[in-house]
Amino acid sequence: MLFIDIVLLVTVMLLTGILYPVMGYRQSKKREVITGGYNKTGWYLTSIISSWIPAIVIVTAVIINGHSFKDIGFTSELPGERGYLFYIALVLSAIYLGYNIFTILLLRFNIKERERHSKEIPAQYRFILPSNKEEKVMWRLLATTAGVTEEVIYRGYMFFALFFLFPGISPVWVILISSTLFSVGHLYQGREVWKPAAAGLFLAAVYYFTGTIYIVIILHIVQDLVAGELDPAIRIESNPNSLSQEDIIDRTKDTEVSATKENEITETD
Question: Which of 8, 44, 64, 187 has the fewest CB atoms inside 10 Å of its own CB, making it the most exposed?
């Protein structure tokens, strides 16, 4: 039914354009003020579950409403009408995949390079990145989850819904709308939001020109796995934006102690 398709698109746009950004912002602020006992694996698990639920609901709604998995990108058929642009997208995808795989191997086996890149991690990301084997395992599951669910929602479903409900819409607008929503969902990353914005634009273009969601899912997963190879325990003191979790906890405790002393003095007066 057309009505269900319209309601679903509006719901997804509200979800990705408003709810996701707000949730991301609140979670980032909550991590910034935490003073200890931060359970990364628990947060990873929560994120995994909260990512799969909407993706499954959206896909189920699409199928129940008479559409197919092929409509949302689950196909291996090559889009012949794309011509040479299909091959360009395929080559660029191979280059991007190779670059990320090389980076993963470099960070894993080259200690100096891992240390150099780890020192540049912004403070707000040190709470997020895995520090031990257990966390790294959960991070890989999280990266896989993000690669599948985000591509299904932002590329597979969004492209299908916009082209289906607005037959005359330009592919450029579809790519821009999809990429914009993807960027908005990552606003919690602050000044670093340009990175997921650029990645989202690239993945959207690749999806359009290749016509299959499998390629962008693989690219997305490998891209997110790169961050899991960094070491958030390494930081550089001269960079105020690269404080470790321990540094932030210490500063928070110092602030709390100072505030307590001021209150005691005030009460005494």
Answer: 64
Check whether 249 has a pLDDT greater than 90.
no
Task: For residue 97, give every residue at least 6 positions away whose Cβ sits within 8 Å of its Cβ, in sequence order, or none.
Answer: 218, 219, 222
Question: In degrees rounded to 5, what are phi and psi of residue 23?
Answer: -65, -45
Interatomic CA distance for residues 252 and 230, integer angstroms: 25
Instruction: Indicate whether 146 belongs to any domain.
Output: yes
Q: What is the mean pLDDT of the chain?
A: 85
Residues 6+ apart with CB under 8 A from 62: 8, 71, 72, 157, 160
**3-state DSSP assignment of residue 122:** coil
Residue 110, domain extent? 2-250
Confidence at 197, pLDDT banded by 50, 70, 90 = very high
How many folded domains does the chain comprise?
Answer: 1
Can you read off the two tokens belonging to residue 221?
């997963």
Two structure tokens written together for 14: 């509200």
Helix axes 158-165, 2-14, angle to 10 degrees: 130
* Range with lowest mean pLDDT among 8-17, 43-52, 72-81: 72-81
3-state secondary structure of 121: coil
* Angstrom distance (rounded) from CA 154 to CA 150: 6
